[in-house]
């Protein structure tokens, strides 16, 4: 099994991308509840 060589910059970029995708998924999932709470 090869070790994956990540530069800190790449790792940070990957983590940011993953965090943004997760955030978007959570937002999309919670959106109906949020909208109904506002109305």
Automatic annotation (TrEMBL):
This is Uncharacterized protein. It comes from Snodgrassella communis.
């Amino acid at each position: 099994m090869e070790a994956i060589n990540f530069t800190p910059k790449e790792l940070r970029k990957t983590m940011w991308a993953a965090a943004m995708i997760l955030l978007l998924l959570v937002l999309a999932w919670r959106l109906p509840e949020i909208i109904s709470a506002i109305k």
